[in-house]
Amino acid sequence: MDCIGFICDPDHPLLGPVAERLAARGFAVEFHRPTDPITPSEVDALSALVAGTLHPTALAVLRYADANGVQTWNGFSTTVALSARLVTLEALETAGCLVPEVRFDGPAEGHDPGRRYAWEGPPALDAPAPFHVEAVGTEPVDHRYYAVDDGRETHMRAVELRTELVDDDPVLRRTDVDVSLAASVRELLDRLGARAVAVDFTRGLNDEFYAVRATPTPTFTGAGMDRRVADSIASLTTIGA
Fold first, then answer.
1. 235: which DSSP letter?
2. Most buried residue, 4, 35, 58, 122, by most Cβ within 10 Å?
3. pLDDT over 90 (residue 153)
4. Where are the domains of the chain?
5. Half-sphere exposure for 218 (CA within 13 Å, toward CB)
6. Is 80 exceeded by the pLDDT of residue 138?
């Protein structure tokens, strides 16, 4: 029986329900908490590995799995690349997106402090930022694009996520997919060899959309894509092939 390992808590909002779907299809599933050590023999026994959180343990296990022939859903290199802000911005620009300006000469008006990796916490108040990123957004809304490759095709959904509460407007709602933005997200997915990604866009001046961040561990909140994600993970194994 194919066994799929998940590095996350069992109550993960996406991977908990996805694991239930996979178990119903005949897969064995097991969860490893990010704070618990995982031995090489445990990884070797898996048919596929999914990291649902950005954590040093997850990164180390992904690296071992990739080096030893265990299929991964977003592997070590992909996860690190999509977690590095500067690498991601360059990849998004190469994929055809507008991206904000990055400055390395200290604080500047209209620019916010940046951090190198998504797993880093906010910088200390007295610590200088490694770089500053242009604040291009003109509205309190992120346009989040979720993409998942199920082994045959890439599926896309878009949601609007309010970063500030306005009257009775919903915090999260589904929205139409813009063909041009979706094409860029697919290009990013292909270039980095990812199985899934979330990309945040914000509307700037002249109604142009800027890609401002991406994540290799998307939750697909509000997208209704649990079945697509299960299909994608299953396709890594002999049962799903």
1. T
2. 4
3. yes
4. 3-74+227-234, 82-224
5. 32
6. yes
Give me 124's structure tokens.
Answer: 């200390």
pLDDT value for 121: 74
Instruction: Provide CATH code, domain 82-224.
Output: 3.30.470.20
C-beta contacts of 73-80 below 8 A and 24+ residues apart: 73/48, 73/49, 73/195, 73/196, 73/232, 73/233, 73/236, 74/50, 74/194, 74/195, 74/196, 74/197, 74/216, 74/217, 75/193, 77/193, 78/192, 78/193, 78/194, 78/216, 79/51, 79/54, 79/216, 79/217
Is residue 227 scored above 80 in pLDDT? yes
How deeply is 179 buried, as exposed, middle or buried, from its count of CB atoms within 10 A (0-12, 13-18, 19+)? exposed
* Residue 58 neighbours by CB under 8 Å, 6+ apart: 7, 34, 51, 52, 79
Query: How do residues 45-89 score in pLDDT, each as one tens digit?
Result: 999 999 999 998 899 999 999 999 999 999 999 999 999 999 999
pLDDT at 120 > cutoff 90 = no
Per CATH, the number for 3-74+227-234 is 3.40.50.880
Q: For the chain, first and last CA: distance in Å?
A: 14
pLDDT at position 162 is 86
What is the pairing mode between strands 3-7 and 28-32? parallel
Query: Residue 159: helix, strand or coil by DSSP?
Result: strand
Q: Note the pTM of the prediction, 2 decimals.
A: 0.92
